[in-house]
Amino acid sequence: MPKQVDHRERRETIARALWRVVEQRGVAHLTMRVVAQEAGISLGQLQHYFGSREAMLSFAMDFASEQAASRVDRGLTGLGDRPHPRDVLRVMLTEMLPLHADARATSRMSAAFVLEALHNENFHARARDGMIQGRAMVEQLFRQAIADGHMGSDRDPEVETHLLLALTGFATLLELDVIAPGDVLTAIDQHLDRLFTTDDDRHAGGGGSDTSGDELSRQQESGC
After folding, report:
1. What one-character DSSP code corresponds to residue 222?
2. 196-207: per-residue pLDDT in tens?
3. Which one of 6, 19, 53, 54 counts the least CB within 10 Å of its CB?
4. Contact 49, 5 (CB under 8 A)
5. Exposed / middle / buried, residue 3 (Cβ in 10 Å: 0-12, 13-18, 19+)
6. Three-class secondary structure assignment of 72-117
7. Integer Cα distance of 154 and 199 in angstroms
8. Residue 84 near residue 209 (C-beta atoms within 8 A)
9. What element of type H or E holds 118?
10. What is the DSSP letter of 65?
11. What is the rounded CA–CA span in Å between residue 140 and residue 155?
């Protein structure tokens, strides 16, 4: 009996091969032939699953987004039933940055997709819509945090969303070895500590979260 081929699994194998090409050789080498070679299949086999470079790249980006979301979900599960919004944002940020191998692969895939989106209307619309959706989620989290008393009432959720998303710019500094991962985590923790200082905390001279930056760094290093 012929072996049954799991088409989803084969597509994911091709997507991971594409990630490796991007990570190791750069976007300039991102052709269907090169990806087929990296995946260990013929060009004809690859074209059976993806009729064009655009279709292949689109699936690879979707798969990267799914993997990043799964890592965030696992991190959030480790925080318990009612995590502090500071810790939620820390998990989201650290899984978007190239701080470990899996995140580095998906971060580079995302960067490659943005470059493609600059010259591809379909990719541009998809990338923009995804970022708008993600930004809205963060802003809603801030609004809820203010309503629940986790943040000062004087905070502007829209501005704080912009500032938080700006921290994703650490990806470039990490990739070019301008700043070390530990320094990035320190900067993130200090920003979040200041962000979640409430009105009462200011009067009392305390912080906004019960979890220290050192402890959260240890959680990140252990994969939480």
Report:
1. T
2. 976 555 555 544
3. 6
4. no
5. exposed
6. HHHHHHCCCCCCCHHHHHHHHHHHHCCCCHHHHHHHHHHHHHHHHH
7. 9
8. yes
9. none
10. H
11. 13
